[in-house]
Amino acid sequence: MPTATTTEASTPPRTAPGLTPMAIATSLLAGGVAGGVSRTAVAPLERLKILQQVSSNGAYNGVVSGMAHMWKTEGMRGLFKGNGANCVRIVPNSAVKFFCYEHMAHGLLELRRTFDQNAEMDVLTRLGGGAGAGIVAMSATYPLDMIRGRLTVQKGGGENYRGIYHAATVIAQREGIGAFYKGWLPSVIGVIPYVGLNFAIYETLKDQTVKFQGLNSAAELSVLSGLVCGGIAGAVGQTVAYPFDVCRRRLQVSGWAQAGVAKGPVYTGMLDCFRKTVAEEGVTALFHGLSANYVKIMPSIAIAFVVYDQLKIILKPEVKITG
């Protein structure tokens, strides 16, 4: 049976990802480290984005002014508030996402080959693999994302959460288990184009760069080339999915009295959130924080992809199915 290739001349044959314990551990380790490194590197911008999404405080408008305000009012700790919870979430999320992408993309390719034995890895197959991987990873770690969101936006004073465990306990007692999945639906809808496009664009750009530079395989690409491909992929994916991210954050803090932001309406669900946000603040409110996110998402996604690729090359390159 033919192997999955995107270029016959420049890219060597790709085989199915291994399912041995070592191969699984390698993939999960590489994905987890990639997620933790990339998110910590842009943690201050991540917090600023969330504050812009849920707050009407004009002090957070703009990247430079918002960062300056956080530094002035909360210091260095304020810049990284919520990053511990974010890493607790993003490490397993990233590990599962990269692992599932490799196997889902290959599974879709094998499915296509039942109809066409000459089928090769293409943009749509990568898009489907990325979308499926994003849904699985996001759903598996969503309660941690919800807790991280609240830890990120709270300010000093009042009945604040003291940490991840305390937040989880208080939320469960006061709001019920269902509160951990506030905003889950828009997250599912948003993750499909976001993660799908990230993987599809990144891998396709790498293949095209390999051809353009006359290399033998994507493993020969420079780190800079990988960062550029990852940055473009992150920017495109985030732009498409951003309104759903805003909706998710607003639903997560909806009705939470201790939020350190201006009190807003209580939403009954995703559609109600979109309706009230647009009616009361305009369509542009669905893109609050996008400027900060562009500054954050391009290096974040780029770093994640490059760290993952480099670790897989060092640890066990033969289990890779992507360039």
Automatic annotation (TrEMBL):
Q: Which UniProt keywords apply?
A: Calcium, Membrane, Metal-binding, Mitochondrion, Mitochondrion inner membrane, Repeat, Transmembrane, Transmembrane helix, Transport
* One BP term from GO: transmembrane transport
Q: Where are the Solcar repeats?
A: 22-107, 121-208, 221-314
Q: What is its main location?
A: mitochondrion
- Single GO cellular component annotation? mitochondrial inner membrane
What are the GO MF terms of this UniProt record? metal ion binding
List where in the cell it is found. Answer: Mitochondrion inner membrane
Q: Supply the InterPro entries for this chain.
A: MCP, MCP_dom_sf, MCP_transmembrane
Q: Does the keyword Secreted apply?
A: no
Topology versus the membrane, per the UniProt entry? Answer: Multi-pass membrane protein
PANTHER family for this protein: SOLUTE CARRIER FAMILY 25 (PTHR24089)
The record's comment on protein family reads:
Belongs to the mitochondrial carrier (TC 2.A.29) family.
Protein name (database record): MC family transporter: aspartate/glutamate
Ranked from the top, the taxonomy reads:
Eukaryota, Viridiplantae, Chlorophyta, Mamiellophyceae, Mamiellales
